[in-house]
What does this fold into?
Amino acid sequence: MRPLWQSTKQPDACMLIYPRVSHRGIPAKFDLVCRILGGLVEFVGQTCRCKVVAMRELPCVTGKDVQDLTPTTNPIREPLLDFLNQLSEINDTLTRLESLLNQARELLADLPAGTSTGIPLNVCDLAGGGVPVTFTPRASVAQEEEYRAIVDDLVQKQSAWSVAQAYDAFGTFLYDTAGFFFFENQDKLQARNIAGKLGPISSREGWLRAVREYYRRDSRQVLGCIRRLAPELGIIEKTNRRQINLVAWYKAASEVRQAIVHTSSAIRPARVWRLPKPIMELLSEHFPGRHEPTGYVLTLSAGDARNALLTFAEYGYLIFKCLSRSNGYDWQIPGPD
It folds into this structure.
């Protein structure tokens, strides 16, 4: 899995966040996607009458290459590490898929002009004892631009889905951070308010459920609660080395996630009109798209998605660091050997 770069408090310093390696290896669903794309590359190569060599091997991080990140003395370190691991896995899937599609794009450049396409299916007569039905597909001429458009669309869709997954992972990180923190600090005012409304809570799992119920699954409310627990967070969110207003950026990201999941990657005109100008400027800068009658249609590239993953990672680390420092916890996280 590919690590993410995470900035530190030094102006020009970064540290490399290594993902926790899963013993399960590549998920079966992703392996299936790779096989399908491998078949696509092989088919295009045969169509172009060119020799297709074995798919280029992609580097894979194993348990021997990285140090497993496990929580030590800081009670809120575990949610951060789980969050960074999720982002690393999303980044890994996006990178591998992009690499496979780029190989297909390279082969398409050699596609002979006027190549006919169409591979018939093995159709059987359901009312005739399963006798095969033979037919000749209508010949159509393949255009390189058409294939390229398909490849570009696949990359764009995976990029958008990566951003939506990262947004959901960030929300989970916020809930888990608050739950872990309140389990260890039940004397805090916010914890007493939750317990006063929901009743006695004795376990960490109980606090994780209570936080979700109390804040009604609104991650922005949880983030507001964390700001009250760590006052310096509210300052750095708006004044940081990235020069990004993270509060406004998160609002823009929520609109993007809503569009990706529910409206085919288009922010509806009514929602666009209601967005303040600073949010629209952040949308244009960090989540590119085009204005159409259907609204603001996202056109995210793999690079745009990685920038979003990185911003989520840095935002998460900032939250962890501010909350840790405000409560005297060690905010350092272990790195590679």
